Q: What sequence folds into this?
């Protein structure tokens, strides 16, 4: 196995707190929430596995073989599966769509959805998932919203929309709490001012 | 359409800004070496950004080079590398088709400057086409699709952005490593989607006046030539979604020495540029860029 300290990007002389901090930051970075319905979820899962193993190994080395399992239970073991139970679907066609989504065959799922004549809440929901996997983020949101509007009490649809809208993605400390429309509104106002100032003065920071 | 992306300079130390500049200079020298003097004028920040992403993992040596813009002092430029060559070839092809697009979009007089530019770039383009024929064919195919979506007045932002996003994703095929190719493909796809949507917002007023197709008009049903606050908010959210997808892909790459520069782009400046474009304060700052790298006005 590769050097666990290298995996966590720290020096072998790092203190226990530093190890923990590095581990937490990386676990936040590759957290399943950041890769929900993402075509790269499997790669993030691999990374997370590497990080978990490196952390355990360091714990083992430092604590002489104990503690690893107890630490692990507090670790991040979320699911990257993004699977959608096919038993919840009454319609056989939509069941097949769910199976296709779970197996990662998005093209097939989309083809089946386009064949469907009955386009109810579940159809919209599944279309939203397909769009999301494709990277069609605006369409995905509209389909998920439609599904929730048609069946406001459906927990599965509500959760999917919630997941879609609330996930902020990973950003390191100092880069958090703003989006395109809120950029420069509060804490980072100063930076924004400096930034636009720099642009107006002719980008001199790069080419002085 | 190109030229939007740059790092958040205030976030970076002098050495990091220097590093970004070294990629800019390196690509410029590569363009000059492979395609002659005039090809250097095709350079812009977006192509530099592509060159950086393609050269991740290469040992980046820098050499002091002089050029017409820096005749005395010279500056540290990234040394020639396969990744820079690949980025330069693709930049020339992309810049050429962007020029053709300008010519098609403008009338005879307004398009004159683009025709003139095309005269100078034609030779470089022919050479690039011979170097990367598949890429050139793919670009043409995607641009035809783009034209078709425009003609049908596509009301879905994603369907309208798809051809351009797929076109940029095509650049990832350069990468020999299969996993990295997948990650870069996803990153470039959303980069293309983001650029397309930013460009649509940037051109909204102009398109409203000229009657050209603009996806935002059909998606949000805007009548006038101003985007309302609600539309801006909705657009901002979907831009954020693409930036998050890019950042998610970026997290899976080993950025090495480029981490500070790329962090500042994926975690900061893409949001700032989006805000500036949506607020309409972007163009002012862009004037210098046009002078500086003499790239044409975005489509």
A:
């Amino acid at each position: 196995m590769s050097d666990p300290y290298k995996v966590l990007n720290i020096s072998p002389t790092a203190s226990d707190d530093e190890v923990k901090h590095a581990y937490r930051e990386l676990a936040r970075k590759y957290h399943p929430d950041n890769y929900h319905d993402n075509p790269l979820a499997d790669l993030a899962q691999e990374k997370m596995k590497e990080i978990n193993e490196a952390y355990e190994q360091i714990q083992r080395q430092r604590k002489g073989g104990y503690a690893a399992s107890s630490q692990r239970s507090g670790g991040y073991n979320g699911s990257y599966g993004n699977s959608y139970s096919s038993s919840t679907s009454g319609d056989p066609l939509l069941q097949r769509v769910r199976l296709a989504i779970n197996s990662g065959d998005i093209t097939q799922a989309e083809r089946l959805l386009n064949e469907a004549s009955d386009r109810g809440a579940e159809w919209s929901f599944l279309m939203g998932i397909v769009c999301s996997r494709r990277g069609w983020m605006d369409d995905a949101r509209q389909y998920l919203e439609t599904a929730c509007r048609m069946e406001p009490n459906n927990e599965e649809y509500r959760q999917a929309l919630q997941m879609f809208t609330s996930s902020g993605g990973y950003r390191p400390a100092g880069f958090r709490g703003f989006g395109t429309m809120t950029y420069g509104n509060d804490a980072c106002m100063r930076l924004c001012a400096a930034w636009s100032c720099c642009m107006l003065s002719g980008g001199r920071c790069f080419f002085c | 359409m190109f030229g939007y992306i740059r790092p958040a300079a205030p976030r970076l130390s002098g050495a990091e800004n220097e590093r970004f500049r070294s990629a800019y200079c390196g690509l410029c020298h590569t363009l000059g070496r492979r395609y002659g003097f005039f090809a250097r004028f095709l350079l812009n920040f977006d192509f530099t950004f592509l060159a950086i992403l393609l050269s991740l993992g290469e040992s980046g040596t820098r050499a002091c080079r002089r050029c017409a813009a820096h005749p005395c002092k010279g500056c540290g430029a990234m040394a020639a590398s396969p990744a820079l060559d690949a980025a330069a070839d693709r930049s020339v092809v992309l810049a050429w088709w962007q020029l053709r697009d300008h010519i098609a979009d403008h009338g005879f007089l307004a398009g004159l400057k683009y025709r003139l530019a095309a005269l100078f770039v034609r030779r470089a383009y022919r050479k690039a086409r011979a170097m990367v024929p598949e890429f050139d064919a793919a670009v043409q195919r995607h641009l035809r699709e783009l034209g078709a979506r425009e003609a049908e007045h596509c009301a879905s932002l994603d369907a309208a952005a798809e051809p351009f996003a797929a076109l940029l994703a095509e650049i990832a095929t350069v990468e020999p490593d299969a996993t990295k190719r997948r990650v870069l493909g996803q990153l470039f796809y959303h980069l293309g989607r983001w650029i397309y949507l930013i460009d649509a917002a940037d051109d909204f007023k102009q398109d409203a006046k000229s009657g050209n197709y603009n996806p935002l008009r059909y998606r949000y049903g805007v009548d006038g030539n101003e985007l309302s606050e609600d539309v801006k908010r909705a657009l901002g959210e979907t831009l954020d979604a693409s930036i998050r997808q890019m950042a998610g892909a970026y997290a899976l790459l080993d950025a090495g020495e480029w981490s500070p520069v790329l962090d500042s782009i994926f975690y900061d400046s893409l949001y700032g540029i989006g805000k500036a474009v949506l607020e309409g304060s972007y163009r002012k700052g862009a004037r210098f860029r046009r002078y500086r790298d003499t790239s044409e006005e975005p489509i």
Remarks:
- Residues 236 and 274 of chain B are 7 Å apart (CA to CA).
